[in-house]
Amino acid sequence: VQLVESGGGLVQAGESLRLSCAASGVSFDDYAIGWFRQAPGKEREGVSCISGGKGSTYYADSVKGRFTISSDNSKNMVYLQMNNQKPEDTAVYYCAAEPQSQSRNPYYYCSSYASPRHWGQGTQVTVSS
């Protein structure tokens, strides 16, 4: 399994970015995929997750209404569209994958209960005020 993030950068507050995660060795039917972020001195946060198969989604309250997760099965890509960004969105963003369990919803995979076994290298997002 290999996950490679791209699309990070420096933007001003209110602007948008789209992160991409190129996934190889996983089937989106069988894996839950999530976007996580970690800012300096803060704990890792599950930003948004999408379940394998059904494609149900979860968003953290901090990004709900501003971020959208999507997947393109034909390209094995997962995206995170980030609109109306805020300085507090500044962090390293990671893509992660975990085999989907039939009993688990996407909230579980974004929560601290889960520990996805596959991670990308991360991409820096900086939002200036």
Walk me through the structure:
The longest helix is centred in the last third of the chain and has 5 residues, at 106-110. It contains 1 helix and 11 strands, in the order βββββββββαββ. The N and C termini lie far apart (37 Å). By secondary structure, it is mainly beta. Strands 2, 4, 5, 6, 9, 10 and 11 form a 7-stranded mixed beta sheet that branches. The mean pLDDT is 96. The protein has one helix spanning 106-110, and strands spanning 2-6, 9-12, 17-24, 31-38, 45-50, 57-59, 67-72, 77-82, 91-99, 118-119, 123-128.
Write the layout of secondary structure elements.
Elements: E1 2-6, E2 9-12, E3 17-24, E4 31-38, E5 45-50, E6 57-59, E7 67-72, E8 77-82, E9 91-99, H1 106-110, E10 118-119, E11 123-128
Parallel strand pairs: 2-11
Antiparallel strand pairs: 1-3, 3-8, 4-5, 4-9, 5-6, 7-8, 9-10, 9-11
Features:
129 residues, mainly beta, seven-stranded mixed sheet, four-stranded antiparallel sheet, 49% strand, globular
Largest sheet: 7 strands, mixed
Mean pLDDT: 96
Q: Poorly predicted ranges (pLDDT <50, ≥5 residues)?
A: none
Order of helices and strands: EEEEEEEEEHEE
The count of strands amounts to: 11
Strand proportion: over 45%
How many DSSP H or I helices? 1
Task: Look at the helices and sheets and give the structural class.
Answer: mainly beta
**Overall 3D form:** globular
Helix content: under 10%
Compact overview of the structure:
This protein is mainly beta and 129 residues long. It has one helix and eleven strands; from the N terminus they run E-E-E-E-E-E-E-E-E-H-E-E.
